[in-house]
């Protein structure tokens, strides 16, 4: 189902065409108001009960679990994608001479933890080159061998918008017994994904882009077989019995159940959690399939209007619906971002690609203004 333009839910001026959700989503007015309610708890801490230290995280965890397609027990609350990826890198075995496969030009949060791990165990990180046609699925399937212990990927490449067939990658990886780690920061909430289909070992998503929530928050899926792994920090809330604030110095060796043991310290930030709860609920109300279909229609409208000689896009079967990479025959003109921002049109350039990433707040007028501006180049 196509969702009508939702610009009225945001504080985006009419003359701003914000086509840059992959950079950071704007907050909905309802999310800002929920965050304000959270701040009020800190203004008047006598209204913030010790129970709420646990009920707000539980609510956020439960909603995030629905978007990942899993149960709340498998979700940890983290401050960033890199935090979650470090938990994965610490947990997963990598032997001497074994490899971690990654894609060229991946976001660094999903590179550095693997490089450090490989260095520590005399393994190595194999960076696959960008395929000439951006068909990453073929490239990755062809590269998996017996020595592939871990593949660390995203569902959609953060610069080109090329999307991967994770089912096929998981199936091939099963044959060599490798682990799959996913950074879903540029897709979850806008592109259909179900843990139950893909069976990642770990999957992380920061909330501030396609989950439309606050910065400094994210969610980590941890497959039950890794619930035995070490958390990144040993904070008091993750130990069992921490709900009883009078007994915190009865130090315990046991953890809270499931993936809660991996939660970050000070997770109970009411402003952040209430904002995230509001945003996640709105995404579930719209429905990820509907969001994806609607954003697919918006990006397709842009594709159909592009001046073909100068600019190309990836073929539809490997292009994520919400994420349009524009490739210029002679490279992205250096002054283009400035030229567009002077007209209140916002996009980003990542590597050789102009990244156009609308969300439901983008109107037909916004798209026409962008197309009009590109047409004058
Ligand atoms: C693919 C991807 N992963 C992760 C992040 C953010 O990482 P972190 O939460 O570690 O700052 C970004 C930000 O642009 C990103 O594009």
3D structure, described in words:
This protein has a seven-stranded mixed sheet with strand order 2-8-7-6-5-3-4, sandwiched between helices. It has eleven helices and 13 strands. By secondary structure, the chain is α/β, with parallel strands linked by helices. The protein has two domains: 102 residues, Aspartate Aminotransferase, domain 1 (Alpha-Beta Complex); 251 residues, Type I PLP-dependent aspartate aminotransferase-like (Major domain) (Aspartate Aminotransferase, domain 2). Helix 6 links the parallel strand 5 and strand 6. The protein is globular, with a radius of gyration of 21 Å. Helix 1 runs antiparallel to helix 8, helix 2 packs parallel to helix 8 and helix 9 runs parallel beside helix 11. The site of pyridoxal-5'-phosphate has 12 residues, from helix 3.
What is shown here, in short?
The protein is an alpha/beta fold and 377 residues long. It has helices at 29-43, 52-68, 81-91, 112-121, 136-143, 166-176, 195-198, 270-286, 288-305, 336-341, 364-375; strands spanning 17-18, 75-78, 99-103, 124-128, 148-154, 179-183, 202-206, 218-222, 311-312, 324-328, 345-346, 348-350, 353-356.
Give the CATH architecture of the largest domain. Answer: 3-Layer(aba) Sandwich
CATH superfamily of the largest domain: Type I PLP-dependent aspartate aminotransferase-like (Major domain)
Radius of gyration: 21 Å
Low-confidence stretches: none
The overall pLDDT average reads 97
Helix-strand pattern = EHHEHEHEHEHEHEEHHEEHEEEH
Bound molecule types: pyridoxal-5'-phosphate
Number of domains: 2
Regarding CATH, which class of the largest domain? Alpha Beta
Q: Give the fraction of residues assigned to helices.
A: 25-40%
Percent strand equals 5-15%
Strand tally is 13
* Backbone structural class: alpha/beta
Give the strand order of the largest sheet, numbering strands 1, 2, ... along the chain: 2-8-7-6-5-3-4
Largest sheet entry: 7 strands, mixed
End-to-end distance, in Å?
Answer: 35 Å
The helix count comes to 11
Q: What general outline do the C-alpha atoms trace? A: globular
CATH fold call of the largest domain? Aspartate Aminotransferase, domain 2
